[in-house]
Amino acid sequence: MSLIERHWYRPRLGLTVLLAPLQALFAILAAMRRMAFARGWMAQGRLPVPVVVIGNIHVGGVGKTPLTIALLDALRDRGVQAGVISRGYGGRHRLPTAVKPDSDAAEVGDEPLLLAATGAPVFVGRDRVAAGRALLAAHPQVSLILTDDGLQHYRLARDLEVVVVDGARGFGTARLLPNGPLREPVSRLAQVDAVVVNGEQDVPLPIPDDVARFAMTIAPGEIQALAEPAVRRRPADFAGLNVAALAGIGHPERFFATLRALDIPLARTLAFPDHHAFSEADLPRDVDAIIMTGKDAVKMRHLNHDKLWVLPIRAQIVPDLADWILARLKASNGR
Asked: What distance in Å separates the CA atoms of residue 157 and residue 85, rounded to the nearest whole number?
């Protein structure tokens, strides 16, 4: 974690003063941009199907992708054909691009590959409106679009906004970038439709009473061999081995804590920047096994390495978020 990131949660007076002018500039620019779309000075694009934004006001990983995957599964169970659009952070794409399960992560990004593995149509593009139109042209049966991230992409008109919050980290100092971890002020929560708190809430969260609130927990699945996913191991199978954990996600300590909670002995933990492009050189050689996240695994499929193992996860949301979304959209259409 960098000095600036540590400052977001344990502020230093000197840095607070030094970064205050940049924070003020960021706040002004962000507010002007929101106002421009709200007042119609900048045009929004509306898609012909409902759009539900899954986003956050906090930088870094908070659990949006696991939530989106859980929603896709729940909507499919209810007979709803949903598609996903994403920026595809870290990908080289410029124009709207379809994501297939075997797409190259360097081209489309890592998180869209996880979403495509669900079987749902997924398109990436810096212009979410163009990506949505391309998805619907290719998959006219889609009746609902989810956006993985995109809360601040105001050019895309949306029907519902769902914000994900990390219950353990909260909002840090609650200051805007670069003096704090927020893309938008906490007051933005008063304008969204729902807030999903990921994990145990360790700090008070200023969520307005009139905003729907949901709780999300992450449950680990069976550990799989990267080279052969049908090969599974239980946590107890790693006893006595020299095990390393590897994560290139927004909050790697959450992953490491999950492995420890499974009683997997970790000789080493390796944290990389979010969306890190992994190579063979990043892998430790003096270990018996390396366990990684599903998000990291999609970038290492080219490595036929028998020491690599993946811990898949699944999100559980209470109360039922899919039912709530469908009810809200139905109510909106009835007005």
From this structure: 13
**Sign of dihedral through CA atoms 256, 271, 217, 71?**
negative
Residue pair 156/147 in contact (Cβ under 8 Å)? The answer is yes
pLDDT in tens, 30-86: 999 999 999 999 999 999 999 999 999 999 888 999 999 999 999 999 999 999 999
Q: How far apart are CA 249 and CA 252, in angstroms?
A: 6
Closest among 314, 307, 309, 315 to 235, alpha carbons compared:
309
What is the rounded CA–CA span in Å between residue 284 and residue 290?
A: 8
Asked if residues 259 and 291 have their Cβ atoms less than 8 Å apart, the reply is yes
Task: Please give the structure tokens belonging to residue 203.
Answer: 């700090």
216: pLDDT strictly greater than 50:
yes
Q: And the tokens for 239? A: 């006893």
**Cβ proximity of 205 and 238 under 8 Å:** no
Query: Which pTM value belongs to this model?
Result: 0.93
Question: Side-chain half-sphere of 134: how many Cα atoms within 13 Å?
Answer: 18
* Helix H or strand E encompassing 194: strand 194-198
Q: How far apart are CA 5 and CA 19, in angstroms?
A: 13
| 81, 142 Cβ separation under 8 angstroms | yes
CB distance 276 to 109 below 8 Å:
no
Of residues 163 and 253, more confidence is placed in 163
Do the beta carbons of residue 325 and residue 160 sit within 8 Å? Answer: yes
232 phi, psi to nearest 5 deg: -120, 155
- Alpha-carbon distance of 130 to 107, in angstroms, equals 18
Q: What is the 3-state secondary structure (H, E, C) of 196-254?
A: EEECCCCCCCCCCCCCEEEEEEEEECCEEECCCCCCEECHHHHCCCCEEEEECCCCHHH
Exposure class string for 84-114: b at 16+ Cβ within 10 A, else e:
bbbbbebbebeebbbbeeebbbebbbbbbbb
Average pLDDT rounded to a whole number, residues 116-131 = 95
